[in-house]
Structure formats: structure tokens, C-alpha cells
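Researcher: I'm comparing several assemblies side by side, and this is the next one on my list. It has 600 residues spread over two chains. Same procedure as the others: predict the full complex and return the structure.
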Amino acid sequence: MTDSVRELQVTPVPDTVDAPGLGFLPLAPGFSLPRLQIAAVLRDLGQRLLPWVLPVGLIALWQIASSQGWLSTRVLPAPSEVIKAAWTLSASGELWTHVKVSAGRALAGLAVGGGLGLAFGLLTGSVKFFETLLDSTIQMVRNIPALALIPLVILWFGIDETAKLFLIAVSVFFPIYINTFHGIRNVDPGLIEMGRTYGLTRWQLYREVILPGALSSILVGLRFSLGLMWVILIVAETISAQAGIGYLTMNAREFLQTDVVLVGILLYALLGKLADVFARGLERYWLRWHPGYQSAAA
Amino acid sequence: MLHPHISFESSQTYLAAESGRDIVRDAGPDTLPQAPPSSQERGVRLEIRGLSKRYGKRQVLQHTELVIAPGEFVAIVGRSGCGKSTLLRLVAGLEAATQGSIRLDGQDVSGLREDTRIMFQDSRLLPWRRVIDNVALGLPPGGHAAAADVLAQVGLADRQPDWPARLSGGQRQRVSLARALVHNPRLLLLDEPLGALDALTRIEMHQLIEELWQRSGFTALLVTHDVQEAVALADRVILIEDGRIALDERVRISRPRERSDPLFGQIEKKILDRVLQQPGEAISPSEPLWPNTPVHGVRWAV
């Protein structure tokens, strides 16, 4: 469909042809819109707007319910109140300090746990000896939910930063480890054989064939880890903290500031979404050779 | 052994003179520099003596004897599982023989060699490398000029920056051929490289392979299940049955070969008849394989 639109665009229509009522559409000068294109633009617009209909409608309903007094502000403050709270918090700079602390914790945990997961995954995936040595142990430990470690972690590290870092690192380790391991194992043996017959050295083989072959799987692991990272962060921060989004919300709860609690919750959602967008961006760039990730722009 | 770029001219004179084959050849491109004939550009002499290969209890090859002259194009045909691919893998040095020896110009094959290149049935291009980088794989840095050169010879000069996923099956095999030839091999092993292609693309690829072989003069060993393909390309067609060489047929048809040539049909029929002497599961008795004799119209696959 887009192709036909493009074709239509390159056929110049003289300016003298009247195209009334089209002034509101952003068009290159000298081009006039055939009827077909208007329909296409409208359909495109509809497609873009459709996913927003439900959330916008729900928020509108919520706002109406609050302002009409059907919803108590203690249960759920109006969206406008939440926005106002967010505004005051960010204006005072308080919000950003908390976001910075939380994001810092999350990323540090991800760096430690994810880095170790990647390293161990590469090791066990590539060297049979390490697989035999490590894999069954790791698979066993993997089945312990990270949150079950909380009492132990508090005993070990107290309730300061190390405990939070440890919990996040432990929980992001496994998805990255497992997916790296499987990614390496699933590299097409035909490609490895080809690489050997074409005289690649061991290191070249690793860099040119094995790592890129495992990359899509590693990125899947990363996305799983990012999801887990936020979950664990929230739990860790609600246990005890002197700063961070969790601290912000728990503090607000004490003072019955429901609007600030909602700001915190929405912040988690936003940060989670940002992380996901980032991971997708990585996928789109690193896997751009893959037909499944090639956008229409290619 | 790696050459910055391939020069073909010199090998032609050598080929016609040395192997004594009646090759009809068109003149190569004049633009290439006239290099003196050097032994590096000639094909390698392949000598297989008493070669056996066993996987566990299964005997795949038994006391195979085969000598291939430098620059010769030999096709190996046979049913699935007859051991033809194993023979190729042994020659490539990908596997070790149970018994016997393989020699290239008198040197024992003990592992992978720089002057041997394989073209696989599935093109085995790296999907995450662009076409040009795939061809340049394993070349020293700065090999891109040579890669572009060979890519142009297989007719894909304009596909350099594309991802392999964007190519058709035939184009992928062309890239794969270019990747093999950029190393200027003295022995090219072709492991059913056209098995997955449609009939028209195959014929095009036959012409391309023949042309490049005639120009660069490497020794070629083609494994195929398609007798017609074997007759179209090879100087000699060898049939392997149950791990033994059952037939060694010389194809004396001038090149370029026409499938309508009566001699073509005769040779193809002779080989096919020999293959079909063995009871096979792939032939359905209800329909005649070739009604009213024009054998060249029949494709054979197991």
C-alpha cells in the first residue's frame, strides 16, 4: 500500500488543479493529493490512534469519576491530582534524586549480574568441561526464587545498598546465563564447519560466527532480565531504603499521599517501558540482518 | 597461497595442453593481465589409495581407488547414503580416513588445507554479514577488492551491501561460489551445491561453474545425485555404490555442452541404467521413468 502511495506522490499534478479542503494536510508544495491518498492517510492515522483509544478513554472515565466524587481521593486521586503531584515533585528536584538512585541501583545490579551471566554462559556454552562442572549446579540454584533469599540477604548484608544490589544481580543472572548458553549451543554447526574450512582462527570463529549467532538469544535473555530487574528493585526498595522511588512511595503511604504513591507506580512503569524500548533498539540494530527485524525502511 | 586477485588467462593454455581434453572455449576477457603460467594456478593432482571409512560398524567407503588429473572436473554420483559425501569430506580434510591415503600433489591430506575450498549444499553464508563481507571471509585485511572482483564474476557486483536474507537461493549459491573462488583454490569441492535450486537456475549455475572452472583451471570434484548435472559438467563421471566405485565413465563431449546432443543422452542413459540396476526404493513401478526414450528430458533424483 505504501508503495502505491509513493508512486502517486512522484507523479506531479499541476498546481492549477483544484484540490479544495486539503490545506490542513502537510504536503510538499507543488503536489496535490488524489482522492486515494486521502483515504490512505486517514486509514494510516486510524491505525496509529487505535491503540490509544482504550487508555485515553479509561483515564477520562477516571477523571470524571473522581471529579464527580464517585471515587474517594484516598482510594484513587484524580489523574489531574497525580499530574500535579508529579509536577511539584519534579519541580522541587526531589523526583529526580529518587529516580537517579533507583535507576543507578537497577543498572548496577544489571551490570554485575548480567555481566556474570554472560561470562558464565559463554564459558559453559563454549567449553564442555565448564558445562559439566558448572551447569547442573547453576540449574539447581536457578530454581530458588530470588525473593526467597531476602531474609538471608538481610542477615548477610543488613539493609543497605549491597543487599539490594545483590538481589538484583542474582535475579538478572539466570535469564542472561541460560539464554547465552542456549544461544551458543544453537549456532548452526554448518556455519562453524564452514568457518573452519575457510581458515578462520579460533578467535575469528568466535567473533564472526559464534557470538553473532548467539546474539539474538542473548538479547532475549537481556529483555527478560530487564523485566525482572524492575520487579526485584521495587521489592528491595520497599523493604527499606533512604532514597529511591520505593522510598518515595512508602513514605507517601505513611502520610496517606495517594497521589504520590501513584506517581511512584507510574514512574516504575515508565522506567520499565524505557528499558524495554532500549532493548528493542539494540535488537533492531544488532539483528538488522535478520528478516524478522528489518523494518520497511531497509 | 592467497592471491590478491584471480587471474585466469594463463591457466587456459595449460589446461588444453596438459589434460588433452577437447574443450571448446571462448576467449577470456582481454582486460586481465597476461601472467606467465605458474604452478599455483593449476589444479592439484588428487590421488586416493585404498581409502576406507567406517562409522562404528557401518562401512561407508571400502578400498576406494581414484586418481584425478590436475585441472580435471570429476563428478561423483550415487544414491543417497552411498558414501559420496563422505568421500568429499575426507578429501576436504574434515574427517579422517579409517584406512588408506588421500594425496594432493603427493602430499598426504591431514586436516584442512588452504588450497582446498568447499561449496556446500546449503550456501552457509553468515546471515549477519553483508554479501561482500561474506565473500571476504577469511581473507587477510584489505581483501575486499578481491572479493568485489570475484563477486562481479558471478554476476552479483551490485549486491555487495545486501544481507544474505535478501538474496534468492540461486544468488546465495553464487555468493557461496564467489567465496570459495576468492581464495584461488587449486581444488574445489562441490557438495551437491545445486540440489536445492530450481531447474532453470541450475542450468545457469552449470554454465557459470563451467566458465569459472575453465578460466581458473582448478581441479573440481562435484558430488551430485543428478546424473544430468554430472554429464553436463564433468570430464569423468564416477558412480559409487555401497562404498565402492562401480563405474568410471569419461564424458567426451565438446564444451559448451548441449543437452540435445545425442551423445549427451547416450552417456546419461548409460549411467542411469547402471544406477538403476540396483533395486531402489525411490522408483515407483506404476509410471515409466522416461516414455519413448528422450533421456535428456529425464531428471533423476533419489
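Model: For your comparison table: Residues 1-51 of chain A form one domain.
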